[in-house]
Structures
1.
Amino acid sequence: MAHKIGKQTIIIDSDVGILSSAAVGSKKEGEGPLGPDFDIISDDSRFSEKTWEKAESKMQELACWKALKKAGLEMSDMDFIFSGDLLNQCIASSFNARGSGIPYIGLYGACSTFAEGVGLSAVFADSFAKNCLAVASSHFCSAERQYRFPLEYGGQRPPSAQWTATAAGAAIVSRNACSPLIKAVTFGTVEDLGINDQNNMGAAMAPAAAATLSQFFKDTYTDPSDYDLVVTGDLGFVGSNLMLKLLEKEGFFFKNNYNDCGLMLYDREKQQVDSGASGCGCSASVLSGHILPKLRDGVLKSVLALSTGALMSPTSVQQGETIPGVAHLVCFSSEKGGIF
């Protein structure tokens, strides 16, 4: 049974892991460096739906369907669905889950939602559930008109801005999985260093990512060199550099084993995405389509994956609030046996 060590880290004692995963994206994601790793790429960013919001639900539906198909399971085999998105009241997730007949636990961690869902699924699977489905999505068009400007506005984007991924990822977390296994989960605290620029979310999220990683290392008595890869969700170019500087102040240094999903999803030089990708679908698709398969194949042995989220809303931005951030961490291993 799962147990807590240190201040914030939960150790998963059973052989809980990822039974299967799937990534769905649109044309821009397919043109990026990780395009071949997506299970489904659609040239139609509406996914044959009438609205961007319905398209986002469709992406979740496709990601779930593909993950279930890979595992040879049906939706009825799932005990719980953990899902979230960026839309008001998480409608992409709830609309996807309606009619499933499966207990639905809606999540809002902004762009940290996928790791939050996978982490909660692991805790549930280590306790009383057999199979849990973790899903997250985002859509550039729906996010832009909710958080920033109408698409027709055509405003100039500063270099610190990030491009919301039109993507979704789904993972089946099961106690019967072989690899990759989930060894630990660290749920993060909300951090706020006073950033109030909605076009600089990387800076807003960097303190939370640094806080979660630092606490995990302290809780487990490990350091960055113990892992093949440490990957954050969507800090982008600006946020990644800030996080590394914050961790260096605490004595944690990386040597070529750090990356960020927001820097991996697109080609920043060719695709004009400024500081990189963002959105719930960013880390969800990169982890589901690219990193988890590498763990399953043994190319990577141990990975720390953090999804990072800027906890703003249209209302908080209009009221001049600063932007709190949060980051949740999942520790993966391709092998049985202890890491800590």
2.
Amino acid sequence: MHTLGLLVLGFVFGAALRYARLNRFDTISGLAMLQDFTVAKAIAVAIGTGMVLIHLEVALGWASLHIKPLLLGGVVLGGLVFGVGMAILGYCPGTLAVSVGEGSLDALAGIVGGLLAGWLFTLLVPVMTPLLGPNLGKPAAATLLGWASVALWVLVLVVTGVLWSVAFVLHRLDRQRDARWLVAGVVLGLLEALVFLKGVENRPIGASTAYPYLADLLTGTTGNAYFHKIARSGAWEAVFLAGALLAGLVLSLVRREFRWTVVHRRWQETRGADPRSRLLWAFVGGFFLVFGARMAGGCTSGHILSGGLQLAVSSWVFMGTVAVGLVATGHWFYRAGRSKTGGV
């Protein structure tokens, strides 16, 4: 697809995130503190929706699977590091672009930290390779059970039902009662199914590869095997994220909600109102976020969402380790900050 079409896909992605406030610091940090389940609900619905569609598309020959390898060390350690960064930063690689478009300067600091992490990872890949293994292949439900297996389709339908059920159970625990998360989840699942089609993009949605790609271009670090490996995906994701940034900018301007912001409500309540502290921690969180994503080979969109709906073992392992890092860090980081600031 040409650049304009890819920008449109990114715009739809960003618009869906913004519609349900999935890109906001308060929403993602709220998940880390187990006080806001909007992101978890939307992801569950997106995976459940996309899972059925993509398995049908592949079975009909309209799409292909794009499974990330189960590099055990990278997926587990990278997932933990990613979860730490996500909790501190309060954004994901894809949501950073949308929030910058809305005027969140802490998200911009996170992007700078992510670019540094991407560049450093490029330099360290040769010595980190042993740490990222062993490579256990690309196991997924379809490859393990076979496309002709009744068990596969039973599993797809059961997991889909469980994910939708979990989403509504979490919705009962949330204080917010609007259904924007449900709409956004369905849109994201449909968008994944569209992007997977051979006649469209024939690939999954992703975001984190754009960071080392852009960082390497900016620093001239392009004469290495890693850059050549990620160049195509990185270029695709950079344009896709540009569309997401445009969605944040255009929609916030149209709705007169554009604001230059550094310190958000939940940060102020738990860590204080000092913008310098927020910018510093956002930079650190962005660094951990992207470095962890590169270790694991994907992020929230590329691993959890795109891989989860393919029932890829590597992506479900990543999802679990991210959850551990996210919640553990959220409990420690924000509780410790609250005790210092006297927040409630």
